[in-house]
Amino acid sequence: MPRRARIALPNVPVHLIQRGNNRQPCFFADEDYRRYLDWLAEYADKTHCRVHAYVLMTNHVHLLLSSERADAGGALMKLLGQRYVQYVNRLYRRSGTLWEGRFRSCLVQEEDYMLACQRYIELNPVRAGMVAHPAEYRWSSYRANAQGEADSLWRPHPLYAALGDSAPTRQAAYRELFRHELDPGMVDQIRRATNGNYALGNQRFASQVSEALGRRATPGRSGRPRQSIELESGELF
């Protein structure tokens, strides 16, 4: 069955997940994380992507980014994935695939969902039991967003900028968001949307995305579809 075409729109934030093949590790030493982040910054610049949040876990990566080009996220992940696989295979004398097929993604509604998605991303090490607080984890954007730590990769989203009229007030407001756990329902919603390549937001946002793309941006009803819809890419779903 043909793969469902990825949904993407200019200047709409997108949450991406890239997993290691069979959930195996894709980072093996501190230098691996540093190389990945260096290349992520390089290719984000080349593809005109703005990275608002990220976390590098042992066997997967989360990114939250936006761009004026709808295809920029895919271009970034292709360049970055190829470069990093070549590095890992050469350094560790291995061959074959490192990543688990295509990366997964969802479009993110800015109001009510954008900052929740950032929290979801930066809280990954806490949910995994690796640290007690996101500030303790080195390989994420939390320290840039919450503590003002220099990060050449990080580009704040306008919603983050609206948290305060100065860097200290924005950082304090951002830290306040982490005083409470992310609602389990929101966690499930983020996971379903990202794994399914759907719009993450309310019904109005989903309808706007569907109208802009000319196709469904939410899960379909169970059962046999009444007809196939031909996409611009030539794929059917």
Automatic annotation (TrEMBL):
<feature type="region of interest" description="Disordered">
    <location>
        <begin position="213"/>
        <end position="237"/>
    </location>
</feature>
<dbReference type="InterPro" id="IPR036515">
    <property type="entry name" value="Transposase_17_sf"/>
</dbReference>
<dbReference type="Pfam" id="PF01797">
    <property type="entry name" value="Y1_Tnp"/>
</dbReference>
<dbReference type="GO" id="GO:0004803">
    <property type="term" value="F:transposase activity"/>
</dbReference>
<dbReference type="GO" id="GO:0003677">
    <property type="term" value="F:DNA binding"/>
</dbReference>
<dbReference type="GO" id="GO:0006313">
    <property type="term" value="P:DNA transposition"/>
</dbReference>
<feature type="domain" description="Transposase IS200-like">
    <location>
        <begin position="9"/>
        <end position="124"/>
    </location>
</feature>
<dbReference type="InterPro" id="IPR002686">
    <property type="entry name" value="Transposase_17"/>
</dbReference>
<protein>
    <submittedName>
        <fullName>Transposase</fullName>
    </submittedName>
</protein>
